[in-house]
Amino acid sequence: MEAKSPNTIYLKDYKEPAFLVNTIDLNVALDADLTKVKSTLGIMRNPKMPEQKSLVLQGDALTLNEIQLNGTPLTPADYTLSNNELIIKDAPEEFSLMIETQFSPRENTTLNGLYLSGDILCTQCEAEGFRRITYFPDRPDVMSLYTTTIIADKQKYPVLLSNGNLIDSGLLGDGKHWVKWQDPYRKPSYLFALVAGNLGCAEDSFVTRSGRSVALKVYVEPGNEVNCTYALQSLKNAMRWDELRFGRGYDLDTYMIVAVSDFNMGAMENKGLNIFNAKYILANPAIATDQDYEFIEAVIAHEYFHNWTGNRVTCRDWFQLSLKEGLTIFREHEFCADQQSREVERIKNVRKLRLEQFPQDEGPMAHPVRPDSYIEINNFYTVTIYEKGAEVIRMLQTMLGRDTFRQGMDIYFARHDGHAVTIEDFVQAMEAASGRDLTQFRRWYTQAGTPELYVTSNYDSANCRYTLRLEQVCPPTPMQTSKEPFLIPVTVSLFDLMGQPLPLQMSGSLNEATEQIMEMTQSVQEFQFNNITSYPIPSLLRDFSAPVKLRYPYTTQDLLVLMRHDTDSFNRWEAVQTIENRLILQLIDEDKSGAALCLPVWFTDAFAENLSVRNQNLQYLALLLALPSDKDLANEMTIILVEPIFKIHKFVKRELATQLKDQWMAIYKEYNDNKPYQFNAIAVGQRSLKNIALSYLMANPTDEIRQLCLRQFVNADNMTDSLAALVCLSQVDCPERVEALNKFYDKWQNEPLVLDKWFAIQAQSHLPNTLEVVKQLITHPKFNWINPNRVRSVIGVFAMLNDINFHALNGDGYAFLADQIIHLDNLNPQVAARLCEPLTRWRRHIPERQALMKKQLFRIMSTPNLSRDVYEIVSKSSG
């Protein structure tokens, strides 16, 4: 483990590499207990950095066996070796360096570098895992041509894979075999991949627009080939979409994916050989929910899109991480919107941003989309880099228009194919396409925090003039106490009191469209609209045109008009959410004062009005009918009141369930049609609506309703309906709950991905004994500390998705989480660090909870030999 006060790495200190590695030949003798790697590097001095004479190579948890320079063995006097560096003194201008290392994949529980997942040997090299395989300048701006020879026992590891093209193979006399792979494209070390194991293969093919025939291969544990059909179809859909939307075709003859059980992330885009968490590959209706299918489609597409935004054009340094991740998330979002429902996808994406990224912007780990510094790069694979980074890209498309944005992408690829570049390079391509100066826009990359947009309006009926006054304020964040104004695109429409859209004629413009973009560039700015002949209601920030918090004094009547008539589906949903947020927060205040709780008639009527409208996307309707979650409500509070939120949320849902029981039952019966499972927009919408009706019915669970829920669980022919019923039953202390949980376990105990759901459902239960249940679950024979999916399904779900139990005022939830973080830090620091997040948000809680959470942060900080991963999080959060 690292020292307690590890070094901070700063963007301002970036220097080009002193040496470049043109070629690397790897010879990997694989064994789960002892793997030997012989790497031969073709190195030359970087002519831009002549002053540095020593070659510095990174290494981690390696044993150095031998080192040769131009064929001559080096002695310890010729180099310096430490725990994480190998330094060659007085290196020549150009030379060959051979290094032999050894290590144990079986003992590598970090799941970085080369490690063992079940019986499969596989790699994860992003961000800094390659240094656990061999000594190397392990940084993204060193791009090399890789040739990889793999030697292994043929019976144990019949399939041997690496990047690029298979160019040779053969048998050895001792039961071993070998293969040689060569990647024709230069890549940084983080994109290296190797897999070995007894694997089945599901195959398909794709013909590009240029006529190239691409073999598609998904490798899985034998027997799971039948569960790869949807993944392969999603891959083909993504390949075709990227050709049509961005003109990007695939460039190798084979595209390979390997699914493994033990993986820290969702997937990894290694050139030509993606490695996936199995949960984002395997699917059939019996084991995967509609949401699982959606995730598979999204992750498959994301990793494929990286072939151009991440692989062919990569990052100069890790501070530029959003250059590939934010851009690729944007491309993923656009693809999913085209494949499924654009209105539903937009709402889901914004909800994730608000629930995960906005709180990060408010906390101690707030950082710009391009950070200024980090201690451990793994901690900066964050929602800010990914989701906010994607929203920044979306703003560019909004301002420039889709066609000009595409031209900017074409320029970007043409200029930088095969290079490691910066965010400035990307923005400059957009400037070249549009002719615009985007200097101010760059602040979205350099300034942390979520801007708050305060809007007021004035209607001059005598002159038919309507004025919107906008003021932007971005709160202080760590290391940035003051902010310069952002360039904020605010898309706007106006509606009259009858819900009719009004033509917009801005001062100085002849355009009278019903929707326009106001580009805000100053701290305070006014926009004037002429010839507005009736009192207008503004629809602001349409389609969520910028990642800001909108503050506008809508009346309830305004919101009801937008709910009924807004032509922007996002803002229609937003109006419903705002009405519900306000009501629940008002009821919380009334409950504190001792007033009797009662739902206003107008609210129930408005809710019933949405309930009765079926001539629309049913998935979208299900989103309209879903109340804001506890976390949505918490985001509306300066100080989070955990118990009042839980109590009033439950009250409102129960009242809607009771007062509208007949309507809910009618919806349930209408869409509970027992048709064979299909995954398409219509079928998903029907299941979504049916299951939200069931969740409302179970908010007031009579014997009859509980039995109805149990029947759905027992009779369901698909995991979506089965799990929806089980989730409902898990929140009720009743015999049906016990029966369903036991049946689910008995049926699925040997299906790891399904069993994760069984663990997660119990960890998320609101029943008062859930912490004790969770403590029992981590001692369950099927619990596995090495598997991140299993750890997240219990500990992560409890701490992040079960506020009422995790935040118990006795502090037991906090102590439990701290215990698990300390334990996991010795096994997998990356997973341990991600579990710290709930404790870092102590500032938003009441003083009693603040003290209890800080106590656990200090306890974690005092743990000897704390990893850099966890140290960075808790050290920034505990003060």
Give an overview of the whole structure.
The chain is an alpha+beta fold. Among the domains are: 1-198, tricorn interacting facor f3 domain (Immunoglobulin-like, Sandwich), CATH 2.60.40.1730; 452-556, Sandwich (Immunoglobulin-like), CATH 2.60.40; 749-879, Zincin-like fold (Alpha Horseshoe), CATH 1.25.50.10. The protein has 28 helices and 33 strands. The strands form eight sheets. The chain has an eight-stranded mixed beta sheet with strand order 6-5-9-3-2-12-15-14, with no helix packed on it. A five-stranded mixed beta sheet has the order 17-18-19-21-20, covered by helices on one side. It has a five-stranded mixed beta sheet with strand order 29-31-26-25-33, with no helix packed on it. A hairpin with a 5-residue loop joins strand 17 (200-207) and strand 18. Helix 15 packs antiparallel against helix 16.
Question: Layout of helices and strands, plus pairs?
Answer:
Blueprint (H helix, E strand, L loop, with lengths): L8 E2 L8 E11 L5 E11 L9 E4 L4 E7 L2 E2 L5 E3 L3 E4 L5 E10 L9 E5 L2 E5 L20 E9 L5 E4 L2 E7 L4 E7 L11 E4 L2 E8 L5 E8 L8 H18 L7 E7 L6 E2 L4 E5 L12 H16 L8 E2 L5 H19 L2 H21 L10 E2 L8 H18 L1 H15 L3 E2 L1 H12 L8 H4 L5 E9 L4 E9 L14 E8 L5 E2 L2 E2 L9 E5 L3 E7 L6 E4 L8 E3 L4 H10 L3 H24 L8 H11 L6 H8 L4 H6 L6 H18 L1 H11 L9 H17 L5 H13 L3 H12 L4 H14 L3 H12 L6 H8 L10 H14 L1 H4 L5 H14 L3 H7 L1 H4 L6 H15 L6 H10 L2
Parallel strand pairs: 2-12, 18-19, 19-21, 22-24, 25-33
Antiparallel strand pairs: 1-23, 2-3, 3-9, 4-8, 5-6, 5-9, 7-8, 10-11, 11-16, 12-15, 13-16, 14-15, 17-18, 20-21, 25-26, 26-31, 27-28, 27-30, 27-32, 29-31
Helix pairs in contact: 1-2, 2-3, 3-4, 3-5, 4-5, 5-6, 6-7, 9-10, 10-14, 12-16, 15-16, 16-18, 17-18, 19-20, 20-22, 24-25, 24-27, 25-28, 27-28
